[in-house]
Here is the input.
Amino acid sequence: MLLALTRAVSPRIEQCELTHLARTPIDYARAVEEHDAYEALLTRLGCRVERVPDAPDLPDSVFVEDAAVVFDRIAVIARPGAQSRRPEVAAMETALRRYRTLARIEPPGTLDGGDVLVTPGTVFVGVGGRTNVDGVRQLTAHVAPHGFEVVPVHVRECLHLKSAVTAVALAPPAGKSALVINPAWVDSAHFAAFDLIDVDPAEPAAANVLLINSTVICPAEHPRTRRLIEARGFVTESVPAFELAKAEGGLTCCAVLVAI
Ligand code: CIR
Here is the structure.
């Protein structure tokens, strides 16, 4: 069973952190509707959706992914690179304590969960933006004993590693794992061991998809890349993610998945 930890959209979402996008108005009611649809889809795909307590004063708190990275045996509590986001982690820590032994990224390390792509045996970490070298070093110390190699990866022109590359299949029985990637934002050479699907060039932000069991959830605003993923034989669903995209959030950002 897959548990999906989520958190309500803050009414202060318009005061979110922004790095690559200009600030534009966010329709709060619509953002809530889209987030509700996202949670409903996760439930339909077999997840147990559990909300951690609301944090209305923390504008980016809906983006739970950045607060923690969950492995089979441990969960690593992150230390977000943006100072405004550090108070978000306490509630995630409380929620995760029930399911995993916890490890923590401590100062001066910083690490955003959005920078961490976990694949079988290898963890890729985007470094240089929100995540620093010391954060990568600490993550490595936490996960190496559990059999993971950690590979730091440089990303450009986007917020997190998972803005640029995410999984559409992880070690299927009959083949390799597969990723969807925007090669303009991260060097594909790091991922030579995987089957790669490039985003449609008209949809640079389409590489952030969410794999739930064997279904790939794609953002409704990027239909071309969804078709490319389907053409390679993967089952997809889509959900609108227009409003939170204005806050530089994608589909992986809004859930922390825990196998229970
Ligand atoms: C931020 O800049 O931190 C938020 N506005 C967006 C975070 C999105 N999270 C993610 O991609 N994992």
